[in-house]
Design goal:
Layout (H helix, E strand, L loop, with lengths): L1 H21 L10 H19 L4 H28 L1 H13 L3 H27 L9
Helix pairs in contact: 1-2, 1-5, 2-3, 3-5
Amino acid sequence: MKVVSLYVLTALVDGLHNFYWLMNVVNGAPINLLNCAALLGSAMLLGAAVLLPFRSSLAAGVGLAGSTLLWVFYGPLIAASLFAPFSTWLEIKTFITFRDYVPLVGMFLGPVLLIACTVTSIRAIRKGPGIRSGVN
């Protein structure tokens, strides 16, 4: 049950964060393909959470695929934050000033949940199909 809640929470936090950035399209910004790939990864994590009680080995594979698609977005985000820390802090300060907390939660909690989800999926795949990983 812990793994199901981890998959669902990761999918919701990261999906909401990516959907938030895709809403810039309404104002005329071009569509970012990284956000679209990450949104598909969030949907795959939700699918893995649904599959986990019934077919744990398949769910672990789907969860790892969804995590990989999410890393397509969060990998460059983390790298850009590390290479330009002052602009990152300015962006965080702007979000706090305007009380815009969705990107803050996505920036801070999203990668942490994604790391936990990726590690959990890899461990479940290594256990093999005979052991139910949804019982943990």
